[in-house]
Amino acid sequence: MLRMKLERLRRGWSLTQLCVRTGIEPASLSKIERGIWPCGPGWRKRIAQALEVPEEALFEEVPDHEAPIGYRPSSSPR
């Protein structure tokens, strides 16, 4: 899982809530979180500001066990 998704989950935010804070469509955010859509510098900055994390940390891989209780990882591969 990417740190971007972990930070969103830790805050209890849906993709729609992150969309409101960034101005990026939920479908695009979902693809970025899954690593199947490139994220340009402008979007990286907006996401990092919304999540209050450094831009360079957004795309670090983190273990699923760091996710909040109740999170179920997707069974589909990236």
Structure description:
With 78 residues, the protein is mostly helical. It has a single domain (3-57), classed as 434 Repressor (Amino-terminal Domain). It is built from 4 helices and no strands. The longest helix has 11 residues, at 41-51. The model has no long low-confidence stretch (mean pLDDT 90).
Question: Can you describe this structure in just a few lines?
Answer:
With 78 residues, this protein is an all-alpha fold.
CATH superfamily: lambda repressor-like DNA-binding domains
The first-to-last residue Cα distance is 10 Å
CATH architecture: Orthogonal Bundle
Task: Count the E strands.
Answer: 0
Overall number of structural domains: 1
* Shape designation: globular
Low-confidence stretches: none
Average the pLDDT over all residues and give the rounded result: 90
